[in-house]
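*** Backbone structure tokens ***
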Amino acid sequence: MRSLHRNRILTICLAMLTVLATATWAQVERVEDLTYPPLPEVKIPQPTRVVLPNGMVVFLIEDHELPLVGVSAKIRTGARLEPVDKVGLAGLTGTVLRSGGTTTRSGNALDDYLEGKAASVETSIGQSSGRAAMSCLAEDFPEVLKVFGDVLRHPAFDPEKLAIAKNQVIAGIARQNDNPGSIVSREYRKLIYGKDSPYAWQKTYATVRAITREDLVAWHKKYFHPNRIILGLVGDFQTDKALALVKEVFGDWKPGPTFADTEVPYQTQGAGSVFYVEKNDMTQAKIVMGHLGLMRTHPDYYPVVIMNQILSGSFGARLFSNVRSKKGLAYDVYGAVGFGWDYPGSASLSMSTKTETTGPGIDALLEEVHKIMETEPPTKEEVSKAKAGILNSFVFSVDSPGKVLGKVLVYEYYGYPLDWLTRFRKGIEQVTTEQVRKAARTHLRPERFAILVVGPREGTKPALARYESVTELDISIPES
């Protein structure tokens, strides 16, 4: 009886599968024929925005899923504002701001306190902004926020911690030529922005050793003021109570002087040429080529985003399909016109390939550029798929209040509309195939490409010999 019962169930299941399969096959014959319902409207939480009397901008989003609170601050500063003889100053300031403790609590004591609370406070300064962040249990929020405020307002810049941080930076300089990827990134920035631009400056032994504790104190005094800080809070709190705590910690902080930051120069058009870096301990060659990119405020932002997706936004994109899969020239290959928030990003195509295929690799990248520009412009189907890929992944960029808050802080910092996030979906949906084709023709300029090759001389020599002029770059590390 049990066997008969099992057979009946199996028969029913097979019949159901047959019906379902038949129904599916009756609907479409090709994957390309599948249709999808319209994407549901994405509900993006809107933060509360408050400007304190001292000029500090505060954003708050409640999130009661977990008993946690996160705070993030963006500070109007950045390594691009450093003097040329003290490159590395901003980064050291960002490090020792936290590690050096405060005037009331040493760095080691701060470590112990936060460890005991299962909390964290972190600080750093990047190329175009400073950052400070904290996280803690909701019950410890009032106490840890005071510590966070103390770090921002009253850093001690302990000389011993500065010495440790400087030694770490100097050790990094000594190793800066170990990783081929680091060499490519560093030297390419020089070619794109110009070696005299702060966007291309590099730390040296001399610039780091020249930095003193007084420099860190002066940097903090110049840039760390409430009217230069955007504060974001997300987590398990009541907005009015959290705002009261922020006012308690930061409300008596006097605003600093208002001034415009130094304008950062960069070259707007580099000379198209070929460059080479010799690195004989490699078994492959790294190739990158391109020119200056765009800012997100450019009118062609959305068409270029879609063009980038077609070029290398997925494993089915052109570079992966043609250069990697069909020609077998590279495992990793990438290409896009990059965007910056308040200065242009870089347009680049890059790959790693066997040394003996350096020449075919360069040719393959250039071929794909000319195809998407001229001989094989983006098709309607490619544009449609690219849009679907971008829009389907959009939800993952806003699937938590923390992610939304992080984006809003960036928009506020760089002066973008706070509804920039909600504009994105509509902007992508409205792009036409012709606009994408025009974007490819306009914003990819192979005649201006700087081509950089990093690899062993023996393997890459035949590929470079075909060029009339190749500039060899010196990456030796200056001792002083």
Notes: The longest helix spans residues 2-27. The chain has two domains: 48-250, 273-472.
